[in-house]
Amino acid sequence: MWDLKTIDEKEFYDKVLNCSKPVFIDFWAVWCPPCRMMEPLLNNIIEMYKDKVEFVKVNVDINKKIARDYDIQGVPSYMIVKGRKKIKEIIGASSKKQLANLIDDAIKIINNGNK
Amino acid sequence: MNEHNADNTCWNCPMFEFKGGVDFRACGQSAGEVEEGFNMGSCKRRPDLGFFDPSSVNFEECPEWEKSEYGYKLKKMKVMILGIDGYLGWSLALWLGGLGYEISGIDNYSRRNWVKEKGSHTIVPIARMTQRLRKAKEVLGININFREINLLDRNRLREFLEEVKPDVIVHYAENPSAPYSMVDDEHAVFVQTNNVMGTLRLLFAIKDIVPNTPLIKLGTMGEYGTPLTGRPIFEGLFPADAVLKWGDREWSLGGELTPRDPVSFYHVSKVQDTFNVYEACKYWWLRSYDIMQGVIYGVHIPAFEEDDDLRTRFDVDEWFGTVINRFVAQAIVDIPLTLYGSGHQKRGFLALSDAMQCMTRLINNPPAPGVYDVVNQLSGVYSLYELATTVAKIGKEEFGLAPKIQRLENPRVEADEHPYEAIYKNLPDKFGFKPNVKLEEEIYRMFKLLTKPHIKARIEEKKHVILPKTHWSGEKRESKVIEIIDKF
Prior knowledge:
heterodimer; A: alpha+beta; Glutaredoxin; 4-stranded mixed beta sheet; 4 helices; 4 strands; B: alpha/beta; Rossmann fold; 7-stranded parallel beta sheet; 13 helices; 19 strands; 32% helix; 18% strand; globular
């Protein structure tokens, strides 16, 4: 997982836009209880999908420009992007099944688009 | 070993002042137009740093935070204790004062008056506040800035907050008694007004005067009730893998407040507080830990041993005496230890000095702006029957007493046969809490103190107010004896 504390916004964009894999972005805030409660479940999802998808985490208060660029309307938001394209998005705390569906569906969409 | 709060940054520190527009919003609410500079700010203690990113300095690196027994601690941190004259408030004042915190506090002596109203007194004698303050200074070198103030007195509360500008506020200033709230409509209305309106006054005062100051608010495990389905009692909020299923659809409940099922009008006041504090954090970015505290027992923190005038109060009457404390007193004056109903009710418990450790660790780990978080504060779960037998055995084997146990018709409306799975991982996992006191050890200490002749005489004098007469039905009468147990 890329740690936003250690890379600047430019590096974030370089990595996301040039990543060969789909990127899962977790938009979160420290004051948001659902965001905090999602953390252990997300670690689980990362473990399941780390070979297929790259994961990044964006604190919307610290990285406001990124949140604005992706038109984030609320937190937590989970988004799959490929290059400059938003593939699929879900807003609010989500179950493991919902997140797994989000990633599986996004991968299908990307693969179908590539055919 | 890495301290539990070493990685906290200026986001958590009450000394950091954010500059620029604050983006007040809730989860799911779109961001407003905010100034770019919000993430910058300055430190009240280190103005030489100028404006900087609050994520760039952590507690381990900051010279204002020093290593202590309970994690990093802000030097000369100003702690304001509301309800400083009470069982917990006075204990915390001496405990924190001894660790180098700067203590202030308010109280209007209402606990002393409520116990008098019952016709009782504190079994362990306590000094008047002027004497307490003098002894704290003379014997322990602790200066306490005290004011006699009712939390509902808007102007005086605000004046004192302006004067002290505390770095953290601990709120113990509520009426803590379920039976007191069930006496009649006068008492129920009083408890809810005192507790709910007092906290609401406080929240507005914090917003207006000290918005960066965290509030550590005392709630109770009794807010949750005892769910008969056996579902776990989570720490205030559902984890993300708790799922609501309906038909073929499912939703995560992650981060939502868990259901509450209070068991008296007093407990209802605590539930209302929970929502008020939760909302204040959401609307104004206040910061709070809501402590769902188990039943506290015991008589010991080290400072009490220094001088009898430094001891905290200890109540055993039916309104304010909590269960283990009351059992010990009953064993000493030869009243059978009273179980209500089956005695199989299970509750969470914590020794007084372990409760003080928890508070210290929470104070040292201030929540970030907007954060409302909950801890279930207990170190073990016991059935009341287990506790009664433990107290009776220690009384018999160590102090030569001959205690009996009696089951009484339950004056309360509550389940007395129920599953109970309380989750209490936040304090050990996030705050480094390690319980130091064993149940048996503290019960032994209680017997040792309470069997002293002058204290035993004070229990004898008030033994008529120990047994329950306040029924949830509204009746005022003694509960019938169902069974006497003398073999355990």
